[in-house]
Amino acid sequence: MSTGPLNPAALLATLSECRVDFVLIGAIAVGIHGEVRATGDVDVMVPVDDESNRQALGTALTKLNAERIPMSQGGAVQGSDAAYPTLMFRTRFGRLDVLYRPDGSAPYRAVKERSVTRELGGQPVNVAGKSDLVSMKLAAGRVDDLRDVASMTADEHGEPRRISLDFTLAAGVDPDWAHDLAMSRVSLFDPAGGRVDHRGLSPA
User: Fold this and answer.
1) Among 42, 25, 33, which Cα is nearest to 90's?
2) Pairing of strands 94-99, 41-45
3) What is the pLDDT of residue 75?
4) Which residues are CB-neighbours of 185 under 8 A, at least 6 positions away?
């Protein structure tokens, strides 16, 4: 099936109607805490080893006419825990990514306890707290993730807070290349121009 237009409210409503236990994460959750940006999917975190919730999720996926995206098409992302990859689905309300153990995340129960309840599309939804989202985004480390961190950690004047970046270099990595990489990351948080010296880039 082809993926329908993204409709986050309808997607989340279907999960709630089927009594799926989930916490909203990803770009939509970031938008609740900081700057809204365009996204092509809905990301949710669900508990590990909860059979009743797995069945509820299965019911919801059936109602969504969901089709799992094959791994050959990038439909699963291997995180640090190989037993629990991110699963991606095409649905009639857009793409849904289901994560069990996002890199950088605390256990599900802790993330849910720290979540905030927000009304999305006329229904209450558990949204991951800012600190948990920051941890996940820093672990992911992509440019968009770091921009999200800068947005969520901006002070009341909209200025990003300073964030220290520590790198441990693998054997054989060129320190100059690592320095340039670190500078590209620092500039996301310090528009005035950050500074990284080689003392902060320690060999493995």
Assistant:
1) 42
2) parallel
3) 54
4) 146, 165
At residue 78, the pLDDT reads 55
Residues of the chain with pLDDT under 50: 191, 193-204
Distances (CA, A) of 72 to 64, 86, 167: 22, 14, 32
pLDDT at res. 93: 96
| C-beta separation of 186 from 166 below 8 A | no
Q: For position 12, what pLDDT does the model report?
A: 96
What is the structure's pLDDT at 190? 52
In the chain, CATH 3.30.460.40 covers: 8-145
CA distance 59 to 76: 20
**Measured CA distances, 27 to 50, 54, 80, 158 (Å):** 25, 24, 21, 19
**How many whole angstroms separate alpha carbon 104 and alpha carbon 73?**
25
Q: Which CATH code, of 3.40.50.1980, 2.60.40.1120, 3.30.460.40, 3.40.228.10, is assigned to 8-145?
A: 3.30.460.40
Angle 143-152/26-33 helices, nearest 10 degrees?
30
- What Rg, from alpha-carbon coordinates, does the chain have? 19
C-alpha–C-alpha distance, residues 123 and 152, integer Å: 24
Burial of 201 (0-12, 13-18, 19+ CB in 10 A): buried
Q: How far apart are CA 35 and CA 75, in angstroms?
A: 27
Residue 198: predicted pLDDT: 42
